Amino acid sequence: MEEADVVVAGAGHNSLITACYLAKAGYRCLVLEANGIPGGGAVTEELLLPGYAVDSCATGHTLLRTNPLLVDDELGLVADHQITYADPDPVAHVAFPDGEHFTMSLDREATVAEFGRFSAADARSYERLLDEYDEVKQIFSRAQHTPSGLGPSLDQLLSEHPRGRVWQRRRMLSAWDVIRHEFESPHARSFLMWMAFQTNQALDVPGTGMLAYSVVFGRQQRSWSVLLGGSGRLVDALVSYIETHGGEVRCNRPVARLLVRDGRCEGVETETGEQFRAKRAVVSTIHVVQLVDMVPAGTWPEELEYAVRTYDVGIPGFGVYCLSDVAPVFETREGPVAAVSAGTVSWPEDVLALGFDLRHGRFVADVPWMLVATPTLVDPGRAPEGHHTVKLLSQQAYEPPGGLGDWPAVKEAHARRQLDHLRRFAPGFTDEHILARLVKAPPDYEASNRHMVRGAFHGGDRGLAQSGPGRPAPGWAAHRMPLAGLYQTGATTNPGGSITGVPGRNAARVVLQDLGHDPDDVLRGSEAALSA
Known about the structure:
The protein has about 525 residues and is α/β, with parallel strands linked by helices. Helix content is about 35%, strand content about 20%. The strands form five sheets. Strands 1, 2, 9, 10, 11, 12 and 20 form a seven-stranded mixed β-sheet that branches.
C-alpha cells in the first residue's frame, strides 16, 4: 500500500486546484485519474488529426477569470505558466428562424444598439440588467467563493443591501421568468435564452434566474474567454505545480472503493486492486451518485442517501466536432460575420419546449438551440495555418427514440440535420471544407468520462433543490462528507459545473482549515512566507 499526505480521486480541474493549494501548504498530494490524461472536462486533445488541438468539452473560461486563483495569481499560473486569455469580439453572434441575426459586442453601446433594433424598451432593459447586476456582483461573488457555513450566506449578504430583497426574489425565479418580465421582443428574449442555456439548465426551472444576469454580464465584461493553447493548458499548469511541489498525478487509475475504518476514510482502492493510503485527507471529485456506492451499505446517513437517490444528473450533451479549412461565416444583411461563440436559436416557446422534452428524456429531432464554437478565430495555433476547429454543441436525450435504430446511426443522421441547419445561415460551411468529423452522443461523453453521468457535463441540475446549501445534499454542502477525512469537490458541489475553479478553491479552504491552517494565509500568501 502506497502512502501520501493527501490522496485525490479524480483529476478534473477542480480537484487539481484543491491539490495545488494543499501542495502549496506543504502536503504531498497523489492524484489518481481514471482516464489516460488528466483534466476531466478541461481536456484538449488531437481527437481527429495530428496538429489540430480540440477542446473535448469546455472551451470558454469566462467564469474562471473572476476567481482569485487567477485574479490574484495565487498559484503563479499566470506568472510562471503563462496562462493567457483572448477576449473575442464579437462576443457572440446568433441567428433566428426568420433570418434575423443578433451580434453582441464588447462595446456595450453597440450591444445596446443591437437590442434597440428590435425594441427601444429592450435596449433600456439591457442597460438596466447590466447596471443592476453590477451593484450586487460582489455579493454573489463573495457568497460563491465562501464554502457553506464558513461565512455569511447569500441571503444574509443580500439582506444588508438596499435592494437585497429584490435580488432574493430574482434568484428564486426561473431564467425565463426574469427574461419574460424584463424584455418584450421575441428576438431579445430568444438571444438571452440562448446565452442562459449554455449551462444546459432548463430555463423554466425555479432557481435558474441568476443565469439571465450572471452569464450575460460576464460575457459583456470579458467575452467568452478563450485560453490560448486550449483548455488543457490550464490542466498542464496545475499538474506541473503539483509535481514541482513533490506530488504526482497518475492516470489510468480508476478508483473503485473507499477504504474505511472506524468511520474514517483512510484511502482508496482502484479497479485493479491497488490501494493508496492518505495520511491526512482524501479528496474526491467522483460524481456523487457514484461515490455513494463505493462503501458498504449503511455507511452513509439517510439524508445523504436520499439526496443522491433524488439527485438530478442534468441535461445530456451532444457534440459535432469538425476540422475544416474555413470558419463558419454567417451571412447577414449588414455583411458576413464570424464569431468564436456563435449559434442559432428558435423562439422562446421552442426553447422552453426543448428544456421540457430533455428533462423528460424525449429525443429532440429538430435544432431549437445550438452553440457553434470556433476558437481558432482568436487562437490560430490550434490548427495548421488557415484551418479551424469547429464544435457544434447542443443537448439531447440519453436514449434514442424507438424505431430509429441505435446511437451510431441516429447520431450521424442528427449531426447531418444540425449541419444542414447551420448552412441556412452560414452557407459556405459545406462538406467539401470539412476535413474530418467526430460525433458524440450522450453515451459517448459518459464513456469518455465516467464523471459525465448519462452524458451530462455540468454536474447536475442547478434548480433550487440542488443549489447552494443543497448541493450535493442538505447538510453536506461544505465539502466535508459524513466520513471523517473525506472531502468532496467538483461539479456536484456548489456552485456546480463549468470551468470556474470555485469548487476546487473552496474545498481547499475547508481542508486547510481542518488541518489547522488559516486558509487565507495559504491561498493568498507567498510560498516563501509559508516555508519560513
